[in-house]
């Protein structure tokens, strides 16, 4: 041992240990607040959608505006979380749940009003429910972040739902079906991809636990 390495450092001289200055991310931050605000907008959206029988053009525009506002918060809270280091496990779980609540409410509402076939709603809602259950199934092994395909799926769903919310009439049916059909395909494909990723994560976690035992 050299004299230099044996010499006490500043921590030894002061009797203090080195402590990391990294601060934990607070749970109550602007990104998480925006996520929760999206959940608050869901009942307001449904009120607007079903007002005046559900087919009044003015109220449909109001419902569309609320839906768009809620959808925009999804992009904003994600950007804020990444840019300012506000990513939390709560946000990783709450954000997709808020998305599913908004999307599910819109799809079910449109189907109840007879504007969207129930099979479309059932396929998308079933996929989102399965993914949510998988998310909690593997949560002790890790959190699966959103993939690019998942983000594309979310965008396609939002655009498709927005088109169905707008009072376009028969002139917009072809566009509505084209975008919604693409969204359904993306929904199923990304759902299968998520299942594979969840199974892999759980397998890796189980192997690591077995090695520790």
Automatic annotation (TrEMBL):
Pfam families according to UniProt: CDP-OH_P_transf
Mode of membrane association: Multi-pass membrane protein
Spans through the membrane: 30-52, 119-138, 150-168, 174-196
Enzyme class: transferase
Alphabetized InterPro entries for the sequence: CDP-alcohol_PTase-I, CDP-OH_P_trans, CDP-OH_PTrfase_TM_dom, CDP_ALCOHOL_P_TRANSF_CS, Phosphatidylglycerol_P_synth
Subcellular location: Membrane
An example Gene Ontology biological process: glycerophospholipid biosynthetic process
Keywords: Lipid biosynthesis, Lipid metabolism, Membrane, Phospholipid biosynthesis, Phospholipid metabolism, Transferase, Transmembrane, Transmembrane helix
Gene Ontology cellular component list: membrane
Protein name, UniProt field: CDP-diacylglycerol--glycerol-3-phosphate 3-phosphatidyltransferase
């Amino acid at each position: 041992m050299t004299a230099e390495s044996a010499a006490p450092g500043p921590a030894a001289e002061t009797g203090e240990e080195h402590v990391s200055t990294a601060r934990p991310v607070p749970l109550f931050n602007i990104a998480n607040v925006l996520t929760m605000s999206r959940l608050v907008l869901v009942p307001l959206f449904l009120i607007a959608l079903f007002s005046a029988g559900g087919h009044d053009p003015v109220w449909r525009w109001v419902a569309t505006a609320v839906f768009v506002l809620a959808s925009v918060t999804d992009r904003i809270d994600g950007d804020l979380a990444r840019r300012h280091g506000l990513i939390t496990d709560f946000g990783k779980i709450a954000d997709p749940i808020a998305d599913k609540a908004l999307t599910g409410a819109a799809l079910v509402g449109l189907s109840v009003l007879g504007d969207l076939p129930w099979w479309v709603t059932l396929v998308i809602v079933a996929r989102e429910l399965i993914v949510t259950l998988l998310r909690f199934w593997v949560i002790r092994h890790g959190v699966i972040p959103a993939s690019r395909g998942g983000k594309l799926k979310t965008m396609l769903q939002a655009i498709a739902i927005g088109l169905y919310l707008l009072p376009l009439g028969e002139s917009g049916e072809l566009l509505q079906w084209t975008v919604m059909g693409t969204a359904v395909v993306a929904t199923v494909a990304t759902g299968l991809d998520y299942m594979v990723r969840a199974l892999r994560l759980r397998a890796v976690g189980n192997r690591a636990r077995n090695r520790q035992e």
